[in-house]
Amino acid sequence: MLYELLLNYVENFTFLNVFKYLTFRTGLAFFTSLLIVLLIGDPFINFFSRKNIFDPIRKDGPSDHIIKKIGTPTMGGVIILIGLIVSVLLWADLSNIYILFCLYIVTSFGLLGAYDDYKKIRSGSSSGISSKFKIIVQIILAMFGLIILTYFVEYEEFKNLYFPFFKNLIIDLGWFFIPFSIFVIVGSSNAVNLTDGLDGLATVPVILVAGCFAFISYVAGNIVFSEYLQILYIEGTGEISIFCGAIIGACLGFLWFNAPPAKIFMGDTGSLSLGGSLGAVGIITKHEIVLAITGGLFVLEALSVMVQVISFKLTGKRIFRMAPIHHHFEKKGWPESTVVIRFWIISIILAMIGLATLKLR
User: Fold this and answer.
1) How far is 118 from 140, CA to CA, in rounded Å?
2) What's the pLDDT tens digit per position in 160-214?
3) Which of 21, 48, 142, 211 has the greatest number of beta carbons closer than 10 A?
4) Does 6 fall in a domain?
């Protein structure tokens, strides 16, 4: 909005040319979303507390969670979404189909997460809507967005799958592109959701992945840099760096309130929307496998749940003391802060590995 408005006055005020630079608008998106979240954080937390919008703690979780975390407001994802969406609307090119797609995913998945949080609050339990219903709705939302996206995107390579470390290893997914992309978006959404179990645990890895893809989207949308790095050039993809910058700012602002001991939890409102949007960014930039590397912590958390369920159904035994895996280490006696910081370290390492794939081809 503001970006398009300012461009109308470039001829009269040449200093406004700075708004044409992606790096400048990415910085603006970062600071705008950060400031919005910091400003509205306390009022929202106080409002949620007055309305008894508290997070129902898992009864089978670590015992100290029941003592320390009970009575903590939830649905903090609303704060993140407000900062993120307003910032993108202000500084991004709203005629860009990739920006519109990301806004659609983050908004629709956020609304689904909000409904799930609402059901949990009303019932006073941690179950919310059924997993089957949640996944079905996610699939429908992702499929609708992807059908629209593929209709407007015309370049032939869009349906290709590119492998890191290899220059010419490319698979044309053809008709399988939409099912594969649905898997990426839905899988990413639920993986972040499963990771969001400790104060700040999911927020920092989301920031790291968004930071990596802010860079990836920028170079993929620049014909000179993409040629130098031997990655696919995608016209218009650079605009996604603004979306990623807004994610980083909103999450950093939220971390101010979510740092241990958390004053508010993001809930499914935040985790489903952030995870889904990261999946969308991975698809747009054609770096879906790099997304799995940089977001390897989310993959690990999701796999731990899958392995636990399969093992219990087949053998009646559990591999982990509790899943997702961060609770396993809590059950082993690790303090929550130790689990969180060590998982952050793992995320940083994985993010560096993911970025290294851009050059090692």
Assistant:
1) 21
2) 999 887 777 889 998 899 999 999 999 999 999 999 988 889 999 999 999 999 9
3) 142
4) no
Q: Tell me the Cα Rg of the chain.
A: 20
pLDDT in tens, 201-253: 999 999 999 999 999 999 999 999 998 888 889 999 999 999 999 999 999 99
Task: List, as one string, the DSSP characters of 176-229.
Answer: GHHHHHHHHHHHHHHHHHHHTTSTTTTHHHHHHHHHHHHHHHHHHT-HHHHHHH
Could you tell me the sign of the dihedral formed by the alpha carbons of 51, 57, 63, 64, in that order?
Answer: negative
Q: Which domain holds residue 192?
A: 24-356
CA distance 3 to 177: 33
CA angle 176, 180, 185 (to 5 degrees): 150
What is d(CA 106, CA 40) in angstroms, rounded to the nearest whole number? 19
Q: Is residue 13 part of a domain?
A: no
Contacts of 134 (CB under 8 A, 6+ apart): 112, 116, 128
Q: Is residue 12 in a domain? A: no
| Residue 108 is assigned to a structural domain of this protein | yes
